[in-house]
Design a protein that fits this description.
162 residues, Four Helix Bundle (Hemerythrin (Met), subunit A), 6 helices
Amino acid sequence: MPWTGRNYKRDNWTASDPVNRAISCANSCLYGVCQAAILALGYSTGLGFVHTGKMLSFVYDIADLYKMEFSVPIAFQTVKEGTEKLDTRVRQTCREAFREYSLLRRIVDDLQYLLGEDATSKFDEEDDPPGGIWDPDGVIAGGVNFAEEQETPDDEVDSSWS
């Protein structure tokens, strides 16, 4: 398949060749999965190591680890199969590949490894349980339905709200 290299025009999407459009589309899907993993672990998307100065610098850093395994092959294979509805087919192929290879779980594991974080130790400390909710009087335990603990008998319910 002929390809002259990575070249795309952000302001003129249709001027790019099909392979470059497919790579951009696949990368966009990959960025979404990487951002979800980063945010799920509580990291900042803007604190990149290689990429800097952007709100998604860390997302771009992490996505670079997976582009040659996912984005590039998916883009070329999809274009090889035809250019009709290219963007849609690239997104669907990415979705299937990400699910088949458990990419989100893999990114989470890789992030924890890369940043030296033990996945279990983070939640074993009694002093800082997960899911705490900030309150001016101190941290309140998360994941608790306080309504069940403070139920009011029916005769004490304020009926002015009905």
